[in-house]
């Protein structure tokens, strides 16, 4: 049982180190004289004014990409296509950002993401382990069977 708890503890600490990514999908038209539009969806930062911009906003595709870059997003993938017979080009861009905010750093073992590695992190992991065991008592039965063989 102790080996299992230690193993689960180490696994939880190991996986908590890697932050998930947030993605933003940007579809836009490069500047043209008649109409220029940019649409955003996904994990759009809440401090950005809109999920869409038009030429009348004086915000073009490059401006939106710069706004996202200032917030820590980097381009993962880009593609470009012609739209209909009009010949307009439309670009689709996927940007990503690590799940942490720039003001927040995660240290190894900082499970509760409070900026410190201390006993509170150990308590958090133990609570997680006990919660899993309480919800799935068959885990203990499997361990007993494995140790008896």
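Sequence proposed for the structure above (149 residues):
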């Amino acid at each position: 049982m102790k080996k299992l708890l230690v193993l689960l503890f180490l696994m939880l600490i190991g996986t908590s180190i890697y932050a998930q990514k947030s993605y933003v999908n940007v579809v836009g038209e490069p500047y043209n004289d008649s109409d220029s539009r940019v649409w955003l969806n996904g994990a759009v930062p809440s401090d950005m004014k809109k999920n869409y911009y038009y030429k009348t906003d004086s915000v073009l595709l490059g401006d939106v990409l710069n706004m996202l870059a200032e917030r820590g997003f980097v381009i993962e993938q880009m593609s470009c296509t012609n739209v209909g017979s009009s010949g307009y080009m439309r670009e689709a861009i996927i940007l990503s950002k690590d799940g942490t905010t720039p003001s927040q750093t995660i240290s190894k073992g900082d499970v509760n993401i409070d900026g410190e590695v201390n006993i509170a992190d150990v308590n958090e992991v133990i609570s997680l382990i006990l919660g899993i065991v309480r919800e799935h008592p068959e885990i203990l039965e499997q361990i007993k069977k494995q140790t008896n063989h």
